[in-house]
Amino acid sequence: MPSFTPWRQSSFLDSSPVSDAVAALAAGGIKERGAIYTRREVVEFILDLSGYTSDRPLCGFRLLEPSFGEGDFLKIVIERLLESWRSIHSSDDPDDPYTALAPCIRGVELHHSSFESTRQKVVEWLGEAGISARTADRLADAWLVQGDFLLVDLAEPFDFVIGNPPYVRQELIPDILISEYRMRYRTVFDRADIYIPFIERSLSLLVEGGTLGFICADRWMKNRYGGPLRRMVAEGYHLKAYVDMTDTPAFHADVIAYPAITVITRETRGKACKTRIAHRPAIDRLVLKSLARDMLTENPPAANGPVREMTDVAVGAQPWILDSPGRLGLVRRLVQDFPDIEKVGCKVGIGVATGADKAFIGPFNDLDVEDDRKLPIAMTRDIDSGEVKWRGLGIVNPFADGGGLVDLNQYPRLKHYLEERRGQIEKRHVAQKAPTNWYRTIDRIYPALASRPKLLIPDIKGEAHIVYEDGHLYPHHNLYFITSDEWDLRALRTVLCSGIARLFVSMYATRMRGGYFRFQAQYLRRIRLPRWQDVSSSVRDELIEMDTSDSPDACRRIVSEIYGLTKKEYAAIGKVEGRGANGN
Question: How far apart (Å, rounded) are the C-alpha atoms in residues 112 and 211?
């Protein structure tokens, strides 16, 4: 057992901009701290999955909880530690419990009030367990650290790191503190939330063979900002278990989050690194106990059971694909055999963001600007029915055809229109950043796009909702679009709606509440397609004809042919999805 020194305060005791920022966060409310408290059944489940169970000699292990909050994890950790200790030491054992127990736990908490209230709870829990008041007080001081986990000195390694790290967006953290984190942690990348460096530091503090068991948001497993952390896991750790907890009552309060439990061990990866996976279990103690046994057994998972096993989920910085093995195998095969959609003459884009829709968008005929300064615009509601039913809205276009903004003096009606709304338009960040260009939309508008036939795809849907628009409308920011100079768009819609679009998006995008996915450009660009010239003329004709067909089986059959799908791959794609009708 390493030498032990009790802690009480953060190592940042001096007055500095960093320590002042830490102090400000330490005094903040729950929202600022990202505090979300975990139900007892879920805590027990995470400890079971991680191997922190009372039938093991827990006095020989060191456990860290990096953000203990109100003590949801600490209470059960202490219960298990004491049960394990007492199974080894008789009630009349002369050994001092402080000596045996003090090195076993370290908990860190930033918030002053939470720290003090939980410290008092720890003393009470120990007293209720028969530990003397003096020893309980000493253990609380030995175990608990008040400070910022990302900054406090925690030199000794741990066998277990367990908990629920805070979920705090970067914009809620002082810039001086973000800069400090960026210097210390390589995973603070792009718009990474604060739980990302929490995971990095926690992993780095594990002994060889040590285990991390966290419940936190799953965004990092697929999003861009999670790339460095995914690479870290792939290069020195083993993703042992993943449990999707979305839409389960895992916390004491209902929160807008997409949580998952991850169990990651520090060990050399074998040739076939296997991960056990489960989805959305019932939050019931007996159900979770049974699921933990199923996930930890050395036997292969039952074919129809709640647990699946996948190989090599973590590969470099690539998004983690945690779907069924059959769908994963199909995607990997298509990635190997076919180019991505933008390499076969298709362009994926997103519509225009204005930053002030009420100022720039209105009934087309009522927009009192010059005729060449407005365009009819397609909104999400225009394609809800599955076909384009334009509601008559338009957008003001402040951009010159050759680039840059138009001279308002040459467009008196446009000038008058914008000046009337100047107060609203100037409030936007894009206008404040460049005051002389105050009347620009966030994105540049390219009028030629309106006249191009395109496929329109709403951002958030349970299925691929793809609508053909024949070249009259400019897409709004909530719509993604696909144009092509090579593929026939009606044929392309047949392919995408066969289940291919949802297959790829579901692999790479995180699932939202209600089973929805975000059909964003970054995921649509991962779709693989054959080149149009490699599709036979007879199959081309069938794909185009199938665009208006009501026969899902015929649609899937022809799409199966161009990808050369086996029967198992055919089944893995899933159902044909709502394509809607043709455009205007």
Answer: 28
| Residue 270: exposure state from Cβ atoms within 10 A (0-12, 13-18, ≥19) | exposed
- The residue type found at 483 is T
| Residue 265 DSSP one-character state | E
Element (H, E) at 477: none
Q: Which amino acid is at 314?
A: A
Q: Tens place of pLDDT for every residue, the chain, 584 residues?
A: 333 343 333 344 455 788 877 777 777 654 444 456 788 999 999 999 999 999 999 999 999 999 999 999 999 999 999 999 998 876 555 457 999 999 999 999 999 999 999 999 999 999 999 999 999 999 999 999 999 999 999 878 999 999 999 877 777 788 888 889 999 999 998 877 889 999 999 999 999 999 999 998 888 998 888 999 999 999 999 999 999 887 777 665 555 457 899 999 998 766 668 999 998 899 899 999 999 999 999 998 888 889 999 888 888 988 888 877 777 788 889 999 999 999 999 999 999 999 999 999 999 999 999 999 999 999 999 998 889 999 999 999 999 988 899 999 999 999 999 999 999 999 999 999 999 999 999 999 999 999 999 999 988 654 558 999 999 999 999 999 999 999 999 999 999 988 888 888 887 776 665 556 677 888 899 999 999 999 999 999 999 998 877 677 778 888 889 999 988 888 877 644 444 444 44
Rounded to the nearest 5°, which phi and psi values hold at 222? -130, -25
Integer CA distances (angstroms), 129 to 6, 106, 136, 154, in order: 22, 19, 10, 28
Report the Cα–Cα distance between both ends of the chain, in Å, rounded. 74
Q: Dmax of the chain from CA atoms? A: 95
CA dist 561 and 491 (Å) reads 14
Spatial CB neighbours of 73, under 8 Å, sequence gap ≥ 6: 38, 43, 46, 47, 65, 162, 163, 164
- Distance between CA 369 and CA 375 in Å, rounded? 11
The DSSP string of 395-432 is EE--B-TTSSB--GGG-HHHHHHHHHTHHHHHTSHHHH
CA atoms of 183 and 187, how far apart (whole Å): 10
Return the amino acid letter for 221.
Answer: M
Q: How far is CA 331 from CA 289, 335, 364, 505, in A?
A: 33, 6, 43, 11
Q: How many other C-beta atoms can be found within 10 angstroms of the C-beta atom of residue 3?
A: 6
Distance CA 387, CA 548 (A): 12
Three-state SS annotation for 36-79: CCECHHHHHHHHHHHCCCCCCCHHHCCEEECCCCCCHHHHHHHH
**How are beta strands 206-217 and 259-265 bridged, if at all?**
antiparallel
Rounded-to-integer distance, Cα 134 and Cα 98, Å: 10
CA distance 76 to 52: 10
Burial (CB < 10 A; 0-12, 13-18, 19+), residue 73, is: buried
